[in-house]
Amino acid sequence: MTATAWSTGELEEIATRDEMRVAPRRTDGTLTKPRIVWMVRVGDDVYIRSVKGVEGAWYRTTRSRGEGHVNAGAVDKEVAFLDVEDSDDLQARIDAEYHAKYDRYPGPVASITSAKARATTMRLVPR
Description:
With 127 residues, the chain is α+β, with helices and mostly antiparallel strands. The protein is built from 5 helices and 7 strands, in the order H-E-E-E-E-H-E-E-H-H-H-E.
């Protein structure tokens, strides 16, 4: 499979949804049980983080193949999980989007914007 871009409709759908189901692909090719995560859109890209940092089980599974499946409303896609370079500017923009979208949940937002969670930031790329 080759990487593609998100369509405008997919980006708009993702932006309006609070939750995404993420199922990383195991080394044997099977998908894990979907886990619910928060996602944000920055420009034409979609980002996710593990609130538990590198200890998060679903995050650890993304390390094995770097691919899986996501679902958010009408968006149902195979994706690649790409690590994000530790750019303070990009991480700050991602943090700002998490705050804008989820600030009604102050405790969880503090966790998802922590250094622990930032270390797991991934860009989702449709396949």
